[in-house]
């Protein structure tokens, strides 16, 4: 079996976790959802919910040693067939990939833009970005195709020579870029404004919407509830300390989000006091800020978007792997074919996602107040917590107690173990069910 090394596993899992969610989504969500209060709930969720589910998901893969469906089936003591249906989670990744790959395409476009003249003034920049989204479908499809090829290439090479190897390169470079930009941003006068924007909670802004977005985002950002972590953990070397590995993943993921958030707002506030620019934050506002730095700005823009591209690719790879593992087994096919089948699905739906923003076609791909892109994003934020509930209940109630205790006894003391199980059995499912119902019926 082509197992990860321990370090390779951490790299790949951090690579899965650290993605567009940290550098593109987190910063604009902070502004949209009222600043520090959102950050506080998000951090709270990572610590009290995220890490517990992360350990549970890793454990299922580590003990089950199969793809998503297989691991549940092997470990379930009864209702194996039903638990095997948890394999739907693997398809959540494919679903996310449809828009994820499109956004990676936008990033490629901004990498090219960094070599030329960056937009001057927010209005110009907004027009540039919006016209790209609403009319330039050929470049968008080309960049989406490029993202598809890179992702397919890495996944075809497999766990060890594809995913592990790619992450050994992508992760350190990404961390260096984000940290380097962060250190540079300290020299800006606006650094302290950014810090207080991110860390000063204004509790009057806290409402159930903010809380739900924070919980949903916590799942998205550490890649929980769709079987990525489970699938990677099936290739973990025996005797890995799962608890430690989970802490590292949560730590790096949170650190990158916070560093990126503070850095981006330090840059932004050096130019304007307007924080809320939604998903266009890194594509509309940041290039204008970089432009005001002259040639240095082109360089900053280039490394920022290259970093974002690396973050996107390492996560995109992890979104595809669960379904590929599953298809290899059920279709008894080669890895290459499994990648092509699943890849073509996200590639084609991705093209529809692109057309759902194009002026002349969007009316056919819009239902209610959302186009296809927004629907997929919206549904994802429901599917991941649903996956989280299933994993929590499975470890909390179904895994034999003996097996649990034997596996975890060297990794947690008794009190922590009991708190963890209680959390998985009751607190997490109740909180997540409440969250899903609220989102569906609001
Ligand atoms: N965690 C990734 C991000 O923050 O961009 C996205 C993601 C990857 C979600 C893999 C879920 C997943 F399984």
TrEMBL record:
Membrane topology: Multi-pass membrane protein
Transmembrane feature ranges: 7-24, 36-56, 87-112, 137-156, 168-187, 210-233, 245-268, 299-327, 339-358, 378-399, 419-437
Entry keyword annotation includes Transmembrane helix: yes
Keyword Zinc-finger on entry: no
Keywords: Membrane, Transmembrane, Transmembrane helix, Transport
SUPFAM superfamilies documented for this protein: SNF-like
Gene Ontology cellular component annotations, sorted alphabetically: membrane
Annotated InterPro entries: Na/ntran_symport, SNS_sf, YocR/YhdH-like
Cellular location(s): Membrane
Domain of life: Bacteria
Main location group: membrane
Protein name in UniProt: TRANSMEMBRANE TRANSPORT PROTEIN
């Amino acid at each position: 079996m082509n197992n990860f090394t321990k370090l390779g596993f951490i790299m790949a899992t951090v690579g899965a976790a650290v993605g567009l969610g940290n550098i593109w989504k987190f910063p604009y969500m902070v502004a949209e959802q009222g600043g520090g209060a959102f950050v506080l709930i998000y951090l709270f969720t990572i610590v009290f919910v995220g890490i517990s589910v992360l350990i549970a998901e890793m454990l299922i893969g580590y003990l089950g040693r199969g793809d998503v469906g297989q691991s549940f089936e092997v470990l379930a003591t009864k209702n194996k067939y039903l638990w095997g249906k948890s394999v739907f989670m693997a398809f959540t990744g494919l679903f996310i990939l449809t828009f994820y790959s499109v956004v990676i395409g936008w990033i490629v476009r901004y990498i090219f833009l960094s070599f030329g003249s960056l937009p001057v003034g927010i209005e110009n920049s907004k027009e540039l970005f919006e016209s790209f989204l609403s009319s330039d479908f050929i470049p968008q499809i080309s960049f989406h195709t490029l993202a598809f090829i890179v992702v397919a290439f890495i996944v075809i090479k497999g766990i060890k020579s594809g995913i592990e190897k790619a992450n050994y390169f992508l992760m350190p470079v990404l961390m260096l870029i984000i940290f380097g930009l962060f250190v540079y941003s300290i020299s800006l006068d606006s650094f302290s404004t950014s810090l207080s924007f991110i860390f000063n909670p204004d509790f009057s802004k806290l409402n159930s919407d903010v809380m739900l977005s924070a919980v949903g985002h916590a799942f998205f950002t550490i890649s929980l509830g769709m079987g990525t972590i489970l699938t990677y953990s099936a290739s973990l070397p025996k005797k890995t300390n799962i608890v430690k590995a989970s802490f590292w993943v949560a730590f790096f993921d949170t650190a990158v989000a916070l560093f990126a958030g503070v850095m981006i707002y330090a840059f932004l506030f050096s130019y304007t006091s307007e924080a809320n620019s939604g998903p266009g934050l890194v594509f509309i506002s940041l290039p204008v800020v970089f432009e005001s730095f002259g040639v240095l700005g082109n360089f900053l823009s280039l490394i920022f978007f290259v970093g974002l591209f690396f973050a996107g690719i390492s996560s995109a790879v992890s979104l595809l792997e669960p379904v590929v593992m599953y298809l290899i087994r059920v279709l008894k096919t080669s890895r290459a074919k499994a990648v092509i089948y699943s890849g073509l699905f996200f590639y084609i739906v991705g093209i529809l996602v692109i057309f759902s923003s194009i002026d002349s076609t969007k009316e056919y791909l819009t239902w209610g107040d959302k186009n296809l892109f927004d629907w997929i994003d919206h549904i994802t934020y429901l599917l991941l917590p649903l996956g989280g509930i299933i994993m929590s209940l499975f470890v909390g109630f179904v895994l034999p107690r003996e097996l649990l205790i034997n596996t975890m006894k060297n990794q947690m003391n008794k009190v922590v173990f009991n708190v963890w199980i209680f959390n998985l059995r009751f607190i997490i499912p109740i909180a997540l069910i409440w969250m899903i119902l609220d989102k569906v019926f609001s």
